[in-house]
Structure prediction request, 152 residues.
Amino acid sequence: MLDWDMVREMQAARITFGSHSVTHPDFSCLTLEEAREEVSESRRRIEEHLGSPVTAFAYPYGKRGSFDDSTIAVLRDARYRWAFTTENGQYGPRADPFTLRRDDVRDVPAYVLAVRLSGVFEHPMLRQVEVAGRGTPRRRRVMAPPVCPSTS
Prediction:
């Protein structure tokens, strides 16, 4: 876990930080007001500690279903510029900036990450393979969102 001193040190090395929510909720379970509070308070806390604007968001759980078009509207209204899902893959120049994909880099050796970033895996067939450690293909673990409590 990072503390604020570590985050500021990383920021000084030109790493930017976005927000992720305060309580890590499944946004599909929230009212619009609750969603607004999650994104605004998360942003406020980070901006207070770092002194720079927060323009990016990463959805808790990150899969469609744990956020929806109303969540995206809340982010747009709050003037976020983009938001990241946990969907794997690349995206093109016309991608929706509020449903950006990303690649999992946990447990990936630096040389594999360098090759990935070089674009050599842009071929659609090669995008399906994820390399872990010694080159063994694996499937990515995904944390399931909690079940929404009943509102009836």
